[in-house]
Task: inverse folding
């Protein structure tokens, strides 16, 4: 990361708390697998629905929204509550 700072390159970290399925409240199709299930799920998302973390992240990446969380280890330790 220090080389990227020296070069003036910004690096951002995006984290789905727990996993993509949990943060979007859906269950993947075991026959299709997680990648294809996520792709098919994403095709039906409303790009205006900022309550979906993936939509929010995408808007931050393209500059439509301000980067709102710095997913540092400290932030994750304070925020993530494991279900077990």
Result:
């Amino acid at each position: 990361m220090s080389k990227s700072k020296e070069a003036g390159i910004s690096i951002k970290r995006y984290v789905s708390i727990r996993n993509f399925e949990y943060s979007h409240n859906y269950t993947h199709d075991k026959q299709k697998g997680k990648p294809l299930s996520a792709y098919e799920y994403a095709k039906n998302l409303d790009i205006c629905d900022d309550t979906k973390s993936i939509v929010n992240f995408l808007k931050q990446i393209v500059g439509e929204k301000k980067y709102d969380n710095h997913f540092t280890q400290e932030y994750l330790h304070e925020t993530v509550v494991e279900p077990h």
User: Anything to note?
Assistant: The chain has a mean pLDDT of 86.
